[in-house]
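Risk register update: the risk that structure generation would not scale has been downgraded. Supporting records follow, first protein first.
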Amino acid sequence: MSTILHPALLKVRDAIEARSKSGRSSYLDSLPSAAQNRSAVGAANLAHTTAVFEPPAKRVIALHKAPHLGIITAYNDMLSAHQPFAQYPARIAEAAQALGATTQVAGGTPAMCDGVTQGREGMELSLFSRDVIAQAACIGLSHNVFDGGVLLGVCDKIAPGLLMGALAFGHLPFVFIPAGPMETGLSNPEKARIRQLAAEGKAGRDELLQAEERAYHSPGTCTFYGTANSNQLMLDFMGLQFPGAAFESPFGPQRDAVLNDSVRAVASATRNPTLALGHLVNAASLVNALVGLMASGGSTNHTIHWLAVARAAGYTMDWTDLDAISAAVPLLCRVYPNGVEDVNAFQAAGGTAGLLATLMDGGYVDGTAMTVWGTSLADTVGEVEPQREIFSVRKPQATRNPDVLRPWNQPFQPDGGIRLLTGNLGRAVCKVSAVKQNHRVVQAPCRVFNDQAQVIDAFKRDEFQSDVVVVVTHQGPRANGMPELHKLTPVLGVLLDRGLNVALVTDGRMSGASGKVLAAIHVCPEADSGGPLSKLRDGDWVSVDAVSGVLNTDADLDSRASSPKQAQAVSLGRGYFQLWRQHVSTAEEGASVLFEIPGEQP
């Protein structure tokens, strides 16, 4: 196993640390030197804390005789991925009791299902929910009577939000406990096929609904490799979850082992200040997580979320850093939408532990980074303790399915899944891992729309008869909260299958399931801030080039006025976020309202 980090990755990490020196120091200085000593907490405060406990436990907590762990849960049964968490607080308490420790549910956070809100009004609150979750986690932890914490959250904005909130209490150790994916149902390619047929009017609602119900059919995370499952892989790579357990079944035989050992780890970490979350989330672990994202072909949403996580830990990162990481890291995974198989097949092929091991072998992951287990990341994929044998590493030469997971020196492609595009239309993110080589450059006249519904209507009117760059403007954070435009996926896929050269350009987001259509997304500056997209008009020639990293138009934008801002909807809760839309940072700055935007007054 290599102990020398790839020089390009070391260069990126050094640059991040250099530019973040002041911010990181300020963050660390903001943290208390140790957890609250409950013997110094007021009597009335402690009485409220321990009111629900039996007398023996009251004394243990009040006299600070053992670790007291706060649980922040994002449980609801609106999300299939979070439904298993209903029983977790009691099981965590039982595991802690066996160690002589105690637990309390410190608080709950919102947790919305993007699968339910796709293409609907609620999606305009989706991105903002991440910062709400961070704030809710802070409120729960603000009781300040805990020695460490357990974080229960899986899906898109939820895990990043929990991590951001916990970082405000970075003097404490925290562990995530994953819930795991549902069993494989309808294959993802078949699901995509029926969606495209429905978009063309060749499949009815009943057929479409039956297909979707076969795909999403039980408790557990959706099985395609989207944002939720990218979260889980990245947390494994940061050493904040049981090694290799991201994709263990919710009801499998190893679930108790995952839960019990996670509680043991965080309880033990309360005695070691170096294992506090604020120290574990550092430049090394952040780069490791992003290496995992690129090597696995993960979700573009993390080009926003993990920059916000970094900022919560005092680091300043941008898309240039991510592009450099992607350029250096080979693509080693083919999991839908980058391939045919799902995360269950990936787990069977070696999973996150196997991917970690081969990336360490190639020098792409810093194995010296510490984990909440008190061991280095390399130790978690080295000699395996007997009780963790199920999570043992499949070494590269022993990968069980080379169509899904490959060793570092036999990649699917020599670089990672995400690119930075720049030009006179701004800066954008482009996911290329699922885009065929002959579709990675599109140069064509554009059609400009203000929302995805207009695109779908134009498709139904059969208006797309030639090569086209579909531009959807006024979809950024300040416009409407930056919704995902997932409903465009089937429509644009149909155009591609008809033989058209087609690309998407937008200041909005796509789903973590972004697939085969070339898409320049998250364009900054956004149209509502007067960005170049607001000056494009139908027929302007646009070049989207993911090979050279270019996003350009030959139109004379300087001679044009920006298109007017869109009216901000206030119904269905959106009015409560008007102030947020006015003050949110750019997508490249993490699209957050929680941090000061560089160059602006706090």
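Supporting record for the second protein:
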Amino acid sequence: MPNIIVRVKSLANEPENKTPICVNKSVIESIVARLYRTTRLPMMLGIIGPGLECVIKQLFSYIAHTPLQSPLRLHYFIAQASDLNSLAQLCQPFDVIVQQLDDIGISAVAGCHRVIGFDGALSIDVHIGQTIQALKQLTNAEQTFGAWMFSNTQAPKLDHPLAWQLARLSDDDASVILAASPNGSLSASMQQQLSNVTQLCGFRLLQWPLEPLSEMTLLSHPDPVSLDIAKKERAALRYQQQQTFAYNPLKSATEGNTAIIGGGVASGCLALSLAERGQALTLFCMDNAPGQQASGNKQGAIYPLLTPEDGPLSQFFLQGYLFSRQRINTLVKQGYNINHDFCGVLQTGHDARSAKRLHKIITARAWADAIAKPLTGAQASAIAGIEIGIDAIYYPLGGWVNPQQLTTAAIEQATTLSDVTCHFNTQVTAIERRNEQWYINAQVGNKQQAFGPFANLVLANGRHLTDFSQTAQLPISGFRGQVSHIPSRFALKKLTTVLCSHGYLTPAHDELHCTGASYIKDPDNLDYSATEQFDNLDKIRTSYQADWTQDVDISGHSARVGVRMVTRDHAPMMGCAPDYDAIIDTYQTQQHTKSSAQYWQHTQAPIHDGLFILGGLGSRGLTSGPLAAELLAAQMCGELIPTTTPILGLLNPNRMWMRKLIKGKALM
């Protein structure tokens, strides 16, 4: 799926005094031209460490006023979140991007965070932590880096181990750019050391004066023999990583058009992420409008799924939490009506066991206050505006959003960026692969209709994910959830934040609160249930034994029922659709032994070519869905996926089977 010309609508507001943003256009164009020349699209530039904020600002300013032939992907590696402060302060005119950077900075969450600006023409992947460790966790991609940039203060860190990690992810013709200022010039011996390292790893070494900003000069380059050796070493490093991660196939999409089945948050956000890359799409939805299934609730809570262990699950949800805020804020800034309120979320235990687990979570590590902070009952009551009376965890950046409006806005924005066709009232009944293309059979009104061919097909259709023979065996289950709508009255009117315990309760919007939800596996109907309505009431009254719970009125029998798909490990499914039949056939000849474990570890797991999965978002789909969609879009387009290999392993749809097979355990 190649990238095409990107349409740029600037998201950057000029300062109130209308002061023009200055940019040395000719110098920035020399960098852009170098990236076009040396790398496959999109353009990829790595910036190591703080000290180059002025360069990033110049790039922002350039993109704000100059259409690009391809997106620019910046990767910014910093040791700690506070290093973002100077960049955010310098780039104040770009208020949407600055808001995103501020969220990442105050949250102090390690790992990779994607920031998107200018309708996808720019993305910044902020990598927080040790640079070499972050690089080791990045997977090889079809698209590679054209250049890496170091400031004077960061250049001495470029030793051989770091340089080889850069080389693994780079074009054969890539450069290392030393951005130098008069006050921080390097000694002759240090420049010689850098020349030796870069030549050995196959890089050209360039110097770029920053004060004043001027053209780059070549300091050194590898000779033909050294370059040939470096190319072979790079290939070996790439192969080595591919072998250790073969069980988690990350195959990109086939060039051509793509069909998405589904009409909820997952499919809407995926349509937007692909459209930002200029991809042509056809979306099929069984309902007459987006967000009618699990995404149809009036209010859905947004808050992270934290665990005591600092593992991939918690990391993914933290990064997804910040990315969801970013998507909502950007779409609202673009003029879309999305009812939401980042009013914070209070989470409390509903019994001794759950209270003990929450205490373990909040004390397991030093969370930044912007992510999670412990509160006494009195503190929680003051924030909520009503009596809570028990200890709580507070998520200041959390809140609620209308999922249907978010989905609709994402799809509408996608249509402004690329060729997007939507088929509503179209129930897909079967999918079929013929002649390396995908075809869809669907019920449209009273007749069957065929669609296709499509080069790629994404199943993002919620509870219907397992309706097809290719996906029937996926280890995922549907859980019915009834959300009750209760009138806002008396003390309930004072509620100012989302409450989460045995169930959840939102602040009032349009004179109604949402509370629930029930949780019933494999439901046989989606009818209103009086029993579940009373269960929702009981959850509130047993979680918060306070007088205001008597104001919860369910007598109007107003509710909404949906089905969310849930995995056993609470992580979504994102990636290539596994070929279960092929896995089973191979398993018959590769029984659970030590040698079979090595086979599964180093052999690409079978997949259905051109078929992708995006589902299993569970009860926190608003937190996980937008980021999972962005990761899948990056994979489909052959880009460097903005997350770590452990998180990709966590999300892969084949993980339940592969976890056993790569350990030499029995599959059945």
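The CA atoms of residues 180 and 209 lie 5 Å apart. On this basis the risk owner (M.S.) recommends closing the item.
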